[in-house]
Design brief:
10 helices, 17% strand, 3-stranded antiparallel sheet, 311 residues, binds iron/sulfur cluster, alpha/beta
Length: 311
């Protein structure tokens, strides 16, 4: 499948079928923590990168194959809202199924009325906000020229006023960057203004393009939860894991996921083992096959081995 991947399971969205609408990597930001690597060339112009009917057809096929899904999630190799026509896709998916639709976005285009409008039918929208000051925002997300912090905030506030669904803001907590009391208090002030339904605290557990990206200490995570909880509900999600049990072609399914983000070796081992209960050799066999294709490699991050695609 070209656009649909997973299901991937996570505490936030349970069993979620992913839909990627973008050519890699198309983004308005160049975050220090991006698991897709550096943004080589910014994309800020919204386009229908691939024919919407083709994407819908894949979703239809995937819905027939995968049962027990909790969410259909639009998330991509970059900024999801760069896809012009996502509103049409959300509306069409809603005609096919009752499974709720989530959109993961950096939120940088929410200042545009047409973008906010396209999101109104989604059941949950998960935009990013990592800082409460312009300087820190720019240091972390390194936006394309013309995209300002003020605009980002105004977009989030305007969207909150117009949107009836669940607004879950994703905060990436970076050790030594935005985990000080001062940074967290600034963030709490703007979160209060936005008034999201919830904040999902996420951690840089995957390989990042910049050396300065580190996991925060447990003490800082607890502090972040304490400070942000003063203004909204904060969820510290457990890491997601993969479910390959319904994949018709295991290597293809693994490729679809690893090409979108690095996958921890432990997570992949567990996902493969779940497909072959009692067959202990199977995990090593599949990983050997992966290496034999020449398309994957293992890298280390924070002392943990991860699978990534060969560049
Ligand atoms: S917004 Fe997302 S895809 Fe874009 S650079 Fe940041 S982490 Fe990467």
């Amino acid at each position: 499948m070209k656009y649909v991947f997973g299901p991937v399971s996570s505490k936030r969205l349970g069993q979620s079928l992913g839909v990627d609408l973008l050519p890699p990597k198309s983004c308005t930001w160049n975050c220090v923590y991006c698991q897709l690597g550096k943004t080589r060339k910014f994309v800020t112009e919204r386009q229908e990168f691939f024919a919407r009917e083709e994407i819908l057809e894949e979703i239809r096929e995937a819905l027939e194959r995968h049962k027990g899904l909790d969410w259909i999630t639009f998330v991509g190799s970059g900024e999801t809202m760069l896809y012009k026509g996502i509103g049409w896709l959300i509306a069409e998916v809603k005609k096919l199924t009752d499974i709720p639709v989530a959109v993961i976005t950096n939120g940088s285009l929410l200042y545009l009325e047409e973008v906010r409008e396209e999101l109104l039918q989604a059941d949950a929208v998960l935009p990013s906000l990592n800082a409460g000051s312009e300087a820190l925002h720019n240091q972390i997300v390194r936006p394309a020229a013309g995209l300002t912090f003020r605009q980002h905030l105004e977009g989030l506030v305007a969207f909150r006023h117009e949107y009836q669904g669940r607004l879950w803001i994703e905060v990436m907590l970076l050790g030594g960057i935005n985990d000080s009391d001062e940074a967290l208090r600034d963030l709490a002030i703007v979160l209060k203004e936005i008034n999201p339904d919830m904040v999902h605290l996420v951690l840089p557990t995957r390989p990042a393009p910049e050396q300065e990206v580190h996991l925060p200490s447990d003490e800082r995570i607890e502090r972040a939860i304490a400070i942000l909880s003063e203004v909204t509900t904060v969820v510290n999600p457990l890491k997601g894991n993969m479910d390959l049990r319904n994949a018709p072609d295991m290597l293809e399914a693994i490729t679809a996921i690893v090409s979108r983000h690095p996958v921890q070796q432990r997570e992949l081992q567990k996902a493969i083992a779940d497909c072959f209960p009692g067959e202990n050799d199977k995990t090593a066999e599949v990983m050997k096959e992966m290496l034999a294709t020449g398309r994957f490699k293992l890298v280390e991050h924070n002392g943990e081995p991860y699978w990534v695609m060969q560049s």
